[in-house]
Amino acid sequence: MAAAEAAEAALERRQEEEEEEEEKEENHNHEGGGETAALNGVVVSEKVKSNNLDVKIPKKELETEEKGTEEEPTGESDSNTLDASSDYPRDKHISIQRHLADLEKLADLREDKKKPCPLCPEEKFKACYGHKLHRHLQNLHWKVSVEFKGYRMCICHLPCRPVKPNLVGDQTLSKLGAHYHCIICSATIARRTDMIGHINRHVNKGETESRFITVRAPTNEVVKESATDVQVLPNHSTPQKTDSYFNPKMKLNRQLIFCALAVLAEERKPIECLDAFGATGIMGLQWAKHLRSSVKVTINDCNEKSVTIIKENCHLNKMKVKLNMKEGDNDGTVGDGEENTDTIEVTKMDANVIMHLRSFDFIHLDPFGTSVNYLDSAFRNVRNLGIVSLTSTDVSSLYAKAQHVALRHYGCNIVRTEYYRELAARVVIAAVTRAAARCNKGIEVLLAVALEHFVLVVVRVLRGPVTADDSAKKIRYLIHCQWCEERIFQKEGNMVEENPYQQLPCDCHGSMPGRTAVLLGPLWSGSLFNTGFLRRMLLAAVQYSLDEAQPLLKTLVCEAECTPLKHFSTHGDENKQEECGVYIKTSNTSAESYVVAGKRKGKEAIRGAAKRQKAEHSAEHPAFYYNVHRHSIRGMNMPKLNKFLHYLSEAGYRVSRTHFDPMGVRTNAPLAQFKTVLMKYSTPTYAVGQAEGPVHLPGEEAPAAADTKDEDAEFPEDDQSGGTAAVSTESHPAHCAAD
């Protein structure tokens, strides 16, 4: 046995010596002639000297890669791809493979029974038999790999990336760290989570083409909205991960802004409008495509990639592009088609800069987050009787989830209330009013919408210090009771009251211990809607087939007039027509309300326009609303919401539903009377099968059964309304109810 072992050891030493001689000859041939040695259809492409292993890649794969690189276009590459160039090495690192068997083939290049790991140095993992090597490759390298486009980036222990030297040991020697090789660039990343984030950053930037993957990255996705096509980048709906943001959920917001611009385009033509934050340019493209010669559209963005996408989208929609960059190069490029001769001006500037330099009739601000940083610039050069619209997406601060941020951005103290969405709209309008007043301009609020993802405010600009003072006087503080949710704006004047609780209609301060009210604001205390403007917006929505905006505009018109939807009409007006079941006012002078042809005709024209503008106002709607669930009675079934609106209307109060809250009721009734009517027409939960109707107190006569049936027939069931067992929250503070 000893002799056999000695003979076997001598045979292994002889084989190792022969392999070393062959390796020296191959290295000499490679250095002298520079040719690649071919053996059985396999090409030697890379050597790992740490374990004396020749790493070989099949010749067919290398030919495919070389062919793919030859077919790459030599022209200018797209901005969203990372094209392969001659500077990149054409051979991939051995740690990047498609299948586990490919790693095993690298180890099979050695003819010995014991084979080393192709991704570990000899001092870390010694040569072993095939079954043990398979387990090692599978458990150590393959399971912790990072996958991308069918390739696996396995962890590598070769001396490719030295780490920091050990402070305890010798300072001159450095350890070898485990790492990953990026498939797209030449970076080496130590941790797997960091490698995943590194690849995701490449994808978010559109760099999805590797230096050796021959398949080009897919083209940008094309999204169609309102007959307008736009290209969007990957992760277009995540603003932190893309340069060109596009959110499909904001379609309703874009339609409302388009309707407002269409109404302004009827008043005077042509108008200069600015989309200060273009991103993909879809909003400006919709303006130019549908309103055509009525508008002169300027789309601005400070990001180079966004400007490139905007130009491509203009060509995609057969629009002419007039470039006006910050450097001053004016260059006109024409789209392929000649069907649409409209021209869109594309600028690359900071939004504050372009609004300081030029004047516009219509400005829309839609930054990521708050828009307070751009209000001063917007009101600086906006023309008289022009419109400024702004979309605020910082709903976490406006909806009182981050109250300190609201105080920092808007200078307002707010808490979470049942009417928090309307409170957010009034906070934004107060900031707009202060910015306009600093430029000696007043505002008229045309529209205020607060939904789940955004707060939209549209205001008309009225030039002059008198209008500025009138608007500034409407910014007041709000006294809010945290027990019963009663609220009232503080009285005008600078005198300090001895007991501000006396202004509240409720008596919670006398019956509850401690301080029960909080001072919120400063807020906008005026109207949130202009009824005439909303009716014309509804006409524009019907004209341009904006289906998503029509139901909301109908609700806004009813809310502005504080009228139930069933009674929405314009009685006594001869100029009216019915659109989609709703009577819409179409006055002959509506399109001429603010028309000032050519240059402004002096003070008389402005005064006449202001008078016509005031004529559009109806009785101002009540401020804020009540939530019927918040003020329900324990153990009682509430009436259906439409029935409850009818009962409040019969009691002599103005009522309407509100878009801020599907279960909200906007009314001028005090909270005590609101609760009285709600209790009167609620039914006990234990009265199974009992018809809905008022709760009759002792001594009252019950109405006839036929009358109750007639009422039920008049108001059908409303699925969004109440009618279920209500849970009372009257004995808890407001912030508990809101949570």
Can you walk me through this structure?
With 739 residues, this protein is α+β, with helices and mostly antiparallel strands. Among the domains are: 96-160 and 177-204, no CATH class; 231-324 and 341-491 and 502-532, 3-Layer(aba) Sandwich (Rossmann fold), CATH 3.40.50.150; 623-685, N2,N2-dimethylguanosine tRNA methyltransferase, C-terminal domain (Phenylalanyl-tRNA Synthetase, Chain B, domain 1, 2-Layer Sandwich), CATH 3.30.56. The strands form 9 sheets. Strands 14-13-15-12-11-16-17-19-18 form a 9-stranded mixed β-sheet, with helices on both faces. Strand 23 (576-579) and strand 24 (582-585) form a beta hairpin. The chain is elongated and about 115 Å long.
Quick summary:
Helix content is 34%, strand content 19%.
Structural class: alpha+beta
State the strand order across the main sheet: 14-13-15-12-11-16-17-19-18
* Poorly predicted runs of 5 or more residues: 28-90, 164-175, 212-218, 326-332, 334-340, 570-602, 614-618, 688-692, 696-739
Question: Tell me about the biggest sheet?
Answer: 9 strands, mixed
**What is the 3D shape?**
elongated
Q: Write down how many β-strands occur, each being a DSSP E stretch of 2 or more residues.
A: 29
Rg to the nearest angstrom?
36 Å
Instruction: Give the rounded overall mean pLDDT.
Output: 75
CATH topology of the domain at 231-324 and 341-491 and 502-532: Rossmann fold
Portion of residues in beta strands equals: 15-25%
